């Protein structure tokens, strides 16, 4: 399964275009433009599994920095500031990583 099985390639492209400049990434805006915020809980779990590169059940900081590249090969890496802000916004239990439930909450809120 790939992200384009769940999300429209044109919506993904629009979301990536919106955050091309360093330090312009907004998770909320990305989720809206890409169509993620309109997906079901089941679809968000599938998206999470794809984004969890090492299949640990969590998206860790080192995976998060490559978040955009999971949507399109060659997309930019998130800056350290963007990565930390993204992690802080989603990591509700303070364990330094994003679990599936935390991811789903962030996308749907």
Automatic annotation (TrEMBL):
Superkingdom, taxonomy of origin: Eukaryota
Binding positions (Ca(2+) 1): 52, 54, 56, 58, 63
Protein keywords: Calcium, Metal-binding, Repeat
Signal peptide limits: none
Native species: Pterocles gutturalis (yellow-throated sandgrouse)
Upper classification of the organism: Eukaryota, Metazoa, Chordata, Craniata, Vertebrata
PANTHER family: ONCOMODULIN-2-RELATED, PARVALBUMIN ALPHA
GO MF annotations in UniProt: calcium ion binding
Family membership: Belongs to the parvalbumin family.
Stored InterPro entries: EF-hand-dom_pair (IPR011992), EF_Hand_1_Ca_BS (IPR018247), EF_hand_dom (IPR002048), Parvalbumin (IPR008080)
Residue sites binding Ca(2+) 2 per the record: 91, 93, 95, 97, 102
Any one cellular-component term (Gene Ontology): cytoplasm
Protein name: Parvalbumin
Function comment: In muscle, parvalbumin is thought to be involved in relaxation after contraction. It binds two calcium ions.
Domain EF-hand as annotated: residue spans: 39-74, 78-109
